[in-house]
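Go through this fold for my students:
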Amino acid sequence: MEGVGGSSDGGPCHSSPTITVHVKFSGRSIPISISPDSTIKDLKSLIQPLTNVLPRGQKLIFKGKILEDTMTLTSAELTSGSKLMLMASQGLHQGDGPVTKNASLPSNLKRTVDTNRTVYEKIKAPLDKSQWERWKLTGVIALSGSQLKIIPDGVWECGASARVLDISNNSIREIPVKISALSSLQKLLLNANDILDEYISWEGITSLKSLTVLSLSQNYLTTLPSSLGALTSLRQLFIANNKLASLPDEIGLLVHLQVLKASKNRLSSIPSCIGNCKDLIEVDLSSNLLVELPETFGNLQKLKALHLSNNGLKSLPSTLFKMCSELATLDLHNTEITIDLLRQFEGWQGFDERRRSKHQKQLDFSVWRSAGFDEAGMEIENVLFHGDGKCRFRMSKII
């Protein structure tokens, strides 16, 4: 009996050859190899990791027509060399936009690294004596927003008396090994600088055994070292807005960690050892490239808030609602997860009651504070989904 595309034995000699189509998006042409028997939905799944656009936010146009998900490439008359246009719906991107392997640094960082090191070594940041004395007295070195390119030498002279170093919101690129001189440091705020992998001394940072807060958000880091696990006193870790592709397995050694904020990176997976961080209360992994989470998230029984928006997630760890009995905030905005799926999880009812109770308290407080209460605010309880069942509203407000 004859079938479509060949004989019933389905042997390799009858399989369809692979074709290469070209998808135009954001000023570039993306080649994708795929079987002509595949559907447009399959093609969108291949496009997702290359563009950070979720499948439901993709519109593929060929010869002036929008291609339907159920069509095959053959029925859409796509052949090898065909050129399609991708239009992305606003708000349905993962991460920080299209990712390229050879992404260049911003223009202000394109200068030669070695040249900059020479220039930086010649510059000595001025330091007011009274300022240094104040640092020694209070233990707080506050230099946020001071237009610095290097850390003043006077900082290191504070030694063990320093408890807090805040050099956030500057243009600092290098964190030298001599930061280890601040041996009693508890809070290190390095966010919103120009820090590069080549110029951060992890040897110096991980020697700070009393460190409880480390903020490295809004820099240009692409990797974190395994030595991060040496910071066993760490309570809060902020690494959002970098270019991190992974987290080290040794993050599981941070057993006292309570807050992890790693949004707006390029994380495609989370190590299963995250389940060892049983003190975690809040985790923010939004705007990454995640398609799944490890089952060990169920070990985080103190977890209260989990932010997962703008990822390619299609499901959640099976024991999340059952085991994470304090979870009350769950942000699934712009993921592939539906309310029907959530209701199938064991423990959903308990979670639903907690989140309703939490937001009712917030609502009551808002009414108490404002006589001009806007009834439209009730939408956070009444409107969850569009007609297709997808989570389209910020579920940190409603879930």
Observations:
- The longest strand covers residues 19-25.
- The first helix runs from residue 40 to 51.
- The radius of gyration is 25 Å.
